């Protein structure tokens, strides 16, 4: 359902992703771990085509896109791929001058071309789902970090993407707010959403992941079931990374 083949991304001379291969079935949750600077965010941004990969192939659902060095993909192809995934950012990235409701309507109107009343109905449903039915008219600065991130999750879901991407969704949050965000993500996993999650919350990763991938220096070092990765990591680099977190 989701397939990444030989994905590479360089910034100038710096090679950040080097031949990433992965597949993910519908309804699976993949957790991506790895040291700072290993390329986790770049990988998610490539999947959402916020960055144009240097080379490789991405398939998400019915959309497949092949990238070649020095060759720009067509705008229409990029937009088609972008509609396949919804991204949740570490720093929320909500529109500050829009209410929670407007933030969750916007993508539906611009990306999905939904009529306003339909977008509004859907936004109300999603905000209720993330526990914000009573805060729909609040602006981001009137919301806690945890509430803002829940708006971010509702927004990511609003365009009905095949895949949800989470880039350290709780890293910017005070500890007491982390739980409310993880709870929402856990519920989405239980509903069978297909997700790729970058997180340093290892207890959460173990609970929610069908598979875990450790990325280091732009390559997949190890891939396995949560039990295997946490209890019997095969690679020295995995053991070293986990020992720093535990
Ligand atoms: P992670 O999310 O695992 O911490 P990133 O994907 O953010 O890692 O970054 C991986 C590497 O790519 C880092 O060395 C970073 O400096 C570099 N990098 C990321 N984005 C850019 C960019 N736009 N221009 C140049 N280098 C970048
Ligand atoms: Mg990152």
UniProtKB/TrEMBL annotation:
SMART domains: AAA (SM00382). GO terms for molecular function: ABC-type amino acid transporter activity; ATP binding; ATP hydrolysis activity. Residues 2-242 form the ABC transporter domain. The keyword Cytoplasm does not apply. Pfam families: ABC_tran. Keywords: ATP-binding, Cell membrane, Membrane, Nucleotide-binding, Transport. One of its GO terms (cellular component) is plasma membrane. CDD domains: ABC_HisP_GlnQ (cd03262). It is a peripheral membrane protein. InterPro entries: AAA+_ATPase, ABC_ATPase_HisP-typ, ABC_transporter-like_ATP-bd, ABC_transporter-like_CS, MetN_ABC_transporter-like, P-loop_NTPase. It is found in: Cell membrane. This is Cystine transport system ATP-binding protein. It comes from Paenibacillus catalpae.
